[in-house]
Amino acid sequence: MTSPAGPPPTGSGDGERQRLKLLAVTACPTGIAHTYMAAEKLAQAAESRGIEMKVETQGSIGAENVLDDNDVKHADGIIVAADKDVDLSRFAGKRVLTVGVAEGIRHPEQLIERVLSAPVHAEGGAPTAPAAGGGKERSLGYKALMNGVSYMIPFVVVGGLLIAISLSLGGHADPSGGLVIPKDSFWMDVNNIGVIGFTLMVPILSGYIAYAIGDRPALVPGMIGGWIANTGELYDSKAGAGFIGAIVTGFLAGYLVLWIKKVKVPKFAQPIMPIIVIPIVATTALGLFFIYVIGKPISWVFEHLTDWLSGMTGTSAILLGAILGLMIAFDMGGPVNKTAFLFGTGLIATGNHTVMGMCAAAIPVMPLGQGLATLIRRRLYTEQERETGLASLFMGCFGISEGAIPFAAARPAQVIPANMLGGAVAGATAGVAGVEDAVPHGGPIVAVLGAVSGVPMFFVAVVIGSAVTALATVALVDLGERRRRGEAVGGIGTAGPEPV
Fold this sequence. Notes:
By secondary structure, the protein is α/β, with parallel strands linked by helices.
């Protein structure tokens, strides 16, 4: 009998080779197009060669066509084409070839040939790396980040849309200076549910980044670390560290857990390590590190940043508006954003409404600009991103800047600069036009409810800023994809964005 790791079995009677039996697993971060495209290409390539193949897809709706123990037992090899973590422990003793999902789309025939000589996956071993020349696999950091983003998106969409709906149907501008929803009303309950979604989205991002790196023991320290980073209450910061802080805590938690796992412990303690020891040690260490090492400097910096802004109130309105727009757009609800927002809010009580007018014009630019970008160049975005883009447009109309966070978290190098450019344009335009906002909120909703003076120029600022963000985003993302295609010419590349 031929061992599972050996060459394919041969027939005994007619000398003909028995039909090969291969398995495959496909998965991409969003679990939509690439997952199923790779599965289809691999199945077609196998069928054309008379090879029996079963493909498990790990898509957005969960695993389908799941490989069972019997499938694995009789398989001659397993191809794992994935840009997210896939559990390989069930394939111990079998030849396993792991590559990026793009390889399953581009070169399915080559993968079928290569899997027959792939290394045998050992029990408890690390995922098998692609063979030399086999294509570029996504890094662990990229997979972890996209894992966190994919889990965060539903919280952003649900929380943002519920808040937007409650504001549009139950909110009004209060004479005392505020955009309010009557307490104990039905729409306040809807708003509160949405706020819970927004409160959870940042810890979810951090938790599932950590989970993708350190597996289940990293989930708790990742989520708790994200909560600490976002709220700021434990390190005396009104603004917190936002989604950028959550990305930091997610990676810290994941790699800290990986490091703790390497520590040799007595055999009797091994069963309790993943469920008690590792989560407690990692959570405590990460939490205290953020509070005492990272958190205090963050609080100090943004307190002094507020003082610096106060000293600029007598300078050029264009310059102040541009600076506030840059800050509002940088981290969308994070510490930089909140510092600018709280600065504008604090001046409302003094009768200075122009600073809040600059902030109000910049607040919707990020979600509107990113949503508009998904409409301008649809091919650059996945199906999930395009759906998120529509929700982002809606959130932008109600001044919910967090609607752009999924785009910024997925492509920070392209999206954040584009956001800041559009935010600066919107803030500067509102500043030079003398736009005023009497309530601590932003977006078209405040103009519709009568809280803005200089409404025409307010909308001009919003439209110009959003257009600049959209066009800059498209240009930067497209440039990134062109660079990838340039790499692909040399033999290494990815499939790029999921097509329409």
